[in-house]
Amino acid sequence: MSDALISAEEVVASARALEQGVRWDDASSVRDIEAMYTRALGMLQECSITEVGVSDLLRTTHANRALVRLRLGENRGAEEDGRAAKALEALASAAPASRAEAACARQRGDEAYAARDWARANDEYTAALELVPDQPDLLAQRGMARLMLGDTEGAAKDDAAANQAMDEQRPEQIAAVTSRARQEREAGSLFFKQGHVPQALQSYSRALALVPNDDAVLANRSLCHLKLGDADAALEDALAAIKVAPNNAKAHYRRAKACQSLGKLDDALTAMEEVCRLLPNAKDMRADRDALAKQLNVA
């Protein structure tokens, strides 16, 4: 049993113990319990879904947090947790061996993708899809790998298939995917604030695997790459975010910083000009632009 799973079990047990004696009209105490379940869910994201006990604890924790959120009057959050719990229950009832093998292939594919081994990532995602067909996030990831390999036709087919699969999913499954992506995004933001940049990068990557065209998450992951010294990857994410949302000022700023790190000062200045156009009252952005212009001796 992994350390993350053990820690999550301890947090859930503590939360359930607190529930036994809590006054449900004490919003502060109830909020503390909700935070404990949220913390446990964050820990479980570090575990492999194939690890014994992870899926069950995920389902239980979502169900418990749903009840707590109902007590707090947060009906929307409770509904999302309920749907996530139901989706996990449905997943548990499907072919365990195939599901486990597919999860392993998916993990190998993610590792290959992170290493920019596009060919191996494509092969592993294909292997996973043979075991669990029509999975939107897998199709989207394979589409991205194929795009990197220059297979634009294959990438377009995967993108179309991913969209079709999403359209055909039951509403609760779609909600579960969206909810999981949001949890990963929130976990990434929390990790980043705590200074755990590699973990933030992993959480944002998992969120993008579920919802690939989230420009806000792409911009956040771009910053993680910058903090870790990978300006090429930072630029790649920034450009992807801009393609999805041309008016995302944060994405243009990430592009500027990545280009600056790569010595592409002309491109960096162009990006900063766009940031200043989108944020005309941001004095610090104008200062950054002027500093770049001075470096290039542009009046």
UniProtKB/TrEMBL annotation:
<dbReference type="GO" id="GO:0101031">
    <property type="term" value="C:protein folding chaperone complex"/>
</dbReference>
<feature type="repeat" description="TPR">
    <location>
        <begin position="181"/>
        <end position="214"/>
    </location>
</feature>
<dbReference type="InterPro" id="IPR011990">
    <property type="entry name" value="TPR-like_helical_dom_sf"/>
</dbReference>
<dbReference type="Pfam" id="PF13432">
    <property type="entry name" value="TPR_16"/>
</dbReference>
<dbReference type="InterPro" id="IPR051966">
    <property type="entry name" value="RPAP3"/>
</dbReference>
<protein>
    <submittedName>
        <fullName>Uncharacterized protein</fullName>
    </submittedName>
</protein>
<keyword id="KW-0802">TPR repeat</keyword>
<dbReference type="InterPro" id="IPR019734">
    <property type="entry name" value="TPR_rpt"/>
</dbReference>
